[in-house]
Design brief:
A 6-stranded antiparallel sheet has the order 1-12-3-8-9-10, with no helix packed on it. The two termini are 20 Å apart. The radius of gyration is 18 Å and the shape is globular. It has one domain: Sandwich (Jelly Rolls), CATH 2.60.120. The protein has 1 helix and 12 strands.
């Protein structure tokens, strides 16, 4: 059974109940099936597709990252190609003072947001969507809410792969759902 809420809101807690004279035994897994990746202070991208995270048929994804600054996400047409047919999203660049969307690695800035989104003490959640040539980025786990940056490419690139990196004085611990 599925349902899409036309006015979604963040879910922070879940409650369960039995009723009408029934009893129940409930078991919950502590974590979703997540894959983990660590990135060094090297500004070298690593493919999350190699961990089993695939974008086939998807136009968005959610992830968690723990880094003090410069969490880089590459949205790629071709695996491992970072100079063309890609978008680079930097969350917490400039010592965690801003975020940007670029057309290639270290390319010109296409969208910009001034804020301090990252924490080196805990994993924070973010989402990225890419549909119809629009790249959008937001905080939290509900795609479309708490958006802080967006840009529309007049000649969009098909996105099939994702790479992540940290650098400029930061390491990262990343979590992705499969």
């Amino acid at each position: 059974m599925t349902w899409t809420d036309p006015f979604p809101h963040p879910v922070n807690y879940i409650a369960v109940s039995t009723g009408w004279g029934s009893t129940g035994l409930w078991k919950f897994e502590r974590y979703l099936p997540l894959v983990c990746m660590e990135t060094a202070n090297s500004y070298q991208y690593h493919s999350v597709n190699d961990l089993g995270v695939h974008l086939k048929g998807r136009t968005s994804f959610t992830f968690w990252v723990k880094a003090t600054n410069d969490a880089h996400i590459a949205l790629l047409r071709n695996k491992g190609v970072y100079n063309k047919n890609m978008y680079e999203i930097v969350i917490g660049g400039g010592r965690n003072t801003n975020s940007v969307i670029r057309e290639k690695k270290l390319g010109p800035i296409l969208a910009h947001a001034i804020h301090a989104p990252l924490s080196g003490n805990k994993h924070l959640s973010f989402w990225i969507s890419f549909s119809g040539g629009t790249i959008s980025v937001g905080a939290g786990t509900v795609v479309g809410t708490r958006q802080f940056m967006s840009w529309t490419d007049p000649t969009p690139t098909q996105i099939r792969y994702v790479g992540v990196s940290t650098g400029w004085g930061s390491t990262g611990k990343w979590l992705f759902s499969k």
